[in-house]
Amino acid sequence: MPAAPMAIQTAEVRAPILTLHRTKAIKEFDKKHILRRVTSAMQSHGPLLPLRSPWSSPIPLPLRHRTSFPTKPLCLAASSSFTVSDGELESRGFRVRRNPGGLDVAALNEVFARVGFPRRDPERLRRALGHAGEAVVWIEELAGGKPVAFARATGDGVFNAVVWDVVVDPSLQGTGLGKAVMERLVADLRATGVSNIALYAEPRVVGFYRLLGFAADPDGVRGMVLSRKNFQKQRKTR
Amino acid sequence: MHDDDGGDACSADSHRGMLGAGASSGRSPSLPYAVEHTKRSGKVLPLRASFWDSIKSGFLNNNTTQVVEPASNFIEEEDTLAQEIILLESTQSDGTLEQIMFSSAGDVDAYDVQALCDKVGWPRRPLTKIAASLKNSYLVATLHSICRAPGLEENDEKKLIGMARATSDHAFNATIWDVLVDPSYQARFICLNLSDEELVSPLLTGPGYDFLGDMGRGLGKALVEQLIRTLLQRDIGNITLFADNKVVDFYKNLGFEADPEGIKGMFWYPRY
């Protein structure tokens, strides 16, 4: 066993050194879900082979190389492997939106307030949404256009992402909307190649996230938050 | 090469590592870099929404408490923070000047980062992905060693010896990833007993000191601390990270709390 590295490492180390078990699990998941969907997307544009396909080099790269795909494959989002499909949601009067376009910040703040989150400064909220890129999923009530469920993620687009602000309007909680946004957000993140998706969960919703495939403290990794008071205090004790 | 794994519980001794960048007055005018002032602003912190208010699940009932976030967050911190900060300075017996410099400019290329990752023993990641991760990070902080041989002022030798980065939504939250310090800089230098008011001064070494493990923690601590100060100065109110079990104490010593109010960090981990 080599000497342990000297660096002070955060858990992101675990992403490049994903434990064998987690790496294997992620690879299997990809094989089963992501790659199959991408294949069907490719097939709708013609076969992958023979050699002359519209966007690949003369020698087609194997499916494993993500760089050979367009950055946002067409059908990746609309997969039938979600618990509640887009169609089902439509029939219930909801539409799933995969980016912040059209999201009314004031209306979102209303939902935040109704669930007990702090209302956010609208300018800052707009800024945050603008920087989330495609890692925003929300559900729009067709009658009225208001957001009724929402989730967003921040990250570096290649290795890590953290999910924030998962909300469902209290009047619609328990009807599968939270799961709907989360499943799609995770799928979208996975589609861009991000394999390290994290979040912070209050004790009573740990079970909800577990059902979605999240594990608490995997391999002993702990979520930590800076206490400003403690930070200032430790700076003064030098 | 010692076999300290850098993750042992930090004792109070490790605090005597690093210096902030403060100077109470402009001493040592020969220093070419800006040294910023530390000022207590004296502002009163208003009651603000805390981290857990925003984390409380937004999709379970019984969450009707109204919380209002103030329009701006006051920071009990300095008003300006220099982008480049000299942390340490030492003059060798041959006259070579070595400085350790922190920078929040993020001026680093993927090759250097990959080389640093190699040094600490991380598995290789594709260069393009490293470059993308740097580009998409909200803040990339670095430690560089700058060596200047006597009489050769133009030919500074600058080497990347530490890095940390943070992703963010540019408004509310930031998450710190990838904190790295070159292992070979953990076995050098050594005694620092500097308070906030003292400038960087020549290092002292002596038989009584043994900082082999401490220095790496000292440099890592300084790196993360300056990174945090930069984030706070940019008004990012919520600073988070996910820590390997072995380094939880290191971050606790910086002011982080694990599982605040029982809130757990969770990772996507497919099972089927």
TrEMBL record, chain A:
* Residues in N-acetyltransferase domain copies: 94-232
**Pfam (any one):** Acetyltransf_1
Gene3D superfamilies registered for this protein in UniProt: 3.40.630.30
Per its UniProt record, what PROSITE patterns does this chain match?
GNAT
GO CC, alphabetical: cytoplasm
Task: Give the keywords, sorted.
Answer: Acyltransferase, Transferase
Q: Which InterPro entries match?
A: Acyl_CoA_acyltransferase, GNAT_dom, NSI-like
What protein is this chain from? N-acetyltransferase domain-containing protein
Provide the species name. Zingiber officinale
Taxonomy, top ranks, is: Eukaryota, Viridiplantae, Streptophyta, Embryophyta, Tracheophyta
UniProtKB/TrEMBL annotation, chain B:
Chain intervals for the UniProt region annotation (Disordered): 1-35
**A GO molecular-function descriptor:** N-acetyltransferase activity
Q: Does the keyword Acyltransferase apply?
A: yes
Q: Which GO terms describe its cellular component?
A: cytoplasm
Q: Does the keyword Hydrolase apply?
A: no
Per UniProt, the keywords (alphabetical) are: Acyltransferase, Transferase
InterPro entries (UniProt xref): Acyl_CoA_acyltransferase, NSI-like
Q: Which Gene3D superfamilies match?
A: 3.40.630.30
State what protein this is by name. Answer: N-acetyltransferase domain-containing protein
Organism, scientific name: Zingiber officinale
